[in-house]
Amino acid sequence: MKRLVLILMLLASPLAAVQPDEMLDDPALEARARELSKGLRCLVCRNESIDESNASLARDLRILLRERLVAGDSDEEAVDFIVQRYGEYVLLRPEATGANWLLWGAGPLMLLVAGGVGFAYVRGRSRAPRAEEAALTADERARLREILED
């Protein structure tokens, strides 16, 4: 019985943090708001959307988004309003335009550079002349005998 209760509690975990008092009366507007809020980052929880976050700032962003939609903004206008207010960081999937190309390309570029440097190092080591072990000189052999005899 305890296991069944535990399983039901795990299955009944909330999928979204949207409170009933936040929800819009119009189902079409609410569906738009939910879809848009899945693409906006909670500024407190980092990699969690405002739709999933229980933070008070995420709640404020959800309410702000719904207010913009009720005011008649299109999806793009509502998201642009929030981006202008909080910056591009609020987008879970920022656009790859302008200076963002540098950020998007920096990781793969650094991987290629590191691979090239590693390849050049390994290739250079394999082509380097090997240091042959030089035979001992007569003085070194005599010194070695002295050390071993002691």
UniProtKB/TrEMBL annotation:
<feature type="transmembrane region" description="Helical">
    <location>
        <begin position="101"/>
        <end position="122"/>
    </location>
</feature>
<keyword id="KW-0479">Metal-binding</keyword>
<feature type="signal peptide">
    <location>
        <begin position="1"/>
        <end position="17"/>
    </location>
</feature>
<comment type="similarity">
    <text>Belongs to the CcmH/CycL/Ccl2/NrfF family.</text>
</comment>
<keyword id="KW-0472">Membrane</keyword>
<keyword id="KW-0408">Iron</keyword>
<keyword id="KW-0732">Signal</keyword>
<dbReference type="GO" id="GO:0046872">
    <property type="term" value="F:metal ion binding"/>
</dbReference>
<dbReference type="InterPro" id="IPR038297">
    <property type="entry name" value="CcmH/CycL/NrfF/Ccl2_sf"/>
</dbReference>
<keyword id="KW-1133">Transmembrane helix</keyword>
<protein>
    <recommendedName>
        <fullName>Cytochrome c-type biogenesis protein</fullName>
    </recommendedName>
</protein>
<dbReference type="GO" id="GO:0005886">
    <property type="term" value="C:plasma membrane"/>
</dbReference>
<keyword id="KW-0349">Heme</keyword>
<dbReference type="GO" id="GO:0017004">
    <property type="term" value="P:cytochrome complex assembly"/>
</dbReference>
<comment type="function">
    <text>Possible subunit of a heme lyase.</text>
</comment>
<dbReference type="Pfam" id="PF03918">
    <property type="entry name" value="CcmH"/>
</dbReference>
<dbReference type="InterPro" id="IPR051263">
    <property type="entry name" value="C-type_cytochrome_biogenesis"/>
</dbReference>
<dbReference type="InterPro" id="IPR005616">
    <property type="entry name" value="CcmH/CycL/Ccl2/NrfF_N"/>
</dbReference>
<feature type="domain" description="CcmH/CycL/Ccl2/NrfF N-terminal">
    <location>
        <begin position="6"/>
        <end position="148"/>
    </location>
</feature>
<keyword id="KW-0201">Cytochrome c-type biogenesis</keyword>
<keyword id="KW-0812">Transmembrane</keyword>
